[in-house]
Amino acid sequence: MHGNSFPEVDGHPIHTDPEELKKENSFIALYHQLKIDQDFENQEVIGDIPAERYYGNTEYKLMLTHPTADKIVRRSTQMKFRLQEGSGEAFYVIGAGDKGEAIGITQKDMEASLRTLHKMAHTLTAELTLISVNKGRKGEIVKVRVN
User: Fold this and answer.
1) Owning domain of residue 140
2) CA distances from 69 to 1, 7, 62, 79 (A)
3) β-pairing, 90-94 with 58-61?
4) Residue 7 lies in a domain
5) Which of 104, 86, 107, 84 is CA-nearest to residue 94?
6) pTM of the predicted model as reported, rounded to 2 decimal places
7) How far is CA 130 from CA 35, 49, 54, 108, 124, in A?
C-alpha cells in the first residue's frame, strides 16, 4: 500500500482523488453525449445477445452499483483476466445478464455502474472507450472497450 489506508490493486490505491473524479465525471458526460449521438430515446429494444463465455475478453454485468473496496479488488482482478484473454483488450456489456439477456438498467444505475467500471480500470491503469448505448427491455445497455 501507499502511505494511506486504501486497498490496492497492482499497487494502485482504490479511491477517488479530485483529479480522478474529474476524469470519471468526463466519462459520464461522454456517456450522456453518446446517448444523444445514438438517438437512444428513439431506439427499438435490442434482442438478446449470445451467452457470456467463461473464457474470452467479454464480460457481462447487469450492474456494478454500490461497490465496496473488496468488490472493486475482485472485479479488477476479473477485468485483468479479461484483458489477458483479449491480449490487452476487453469488452464490458453493462445491463446484460450472463445468458445474454438484453435486460437493461435505469440511467441512475448505469451512471453508478460506469463510475465503478472507471474505478476498476483506473486500478489497472486501463483506458475505457464507450462503444454503444442500446435500449434493453427495462432500460439501458452500454458496451465499453477496456484497453
Assistant:
1) 13-146
2) 14, 7, 19, 15
3) parallel
4) no
5) 104
6) 0.88
7) 10, 18, 23, 17, 18
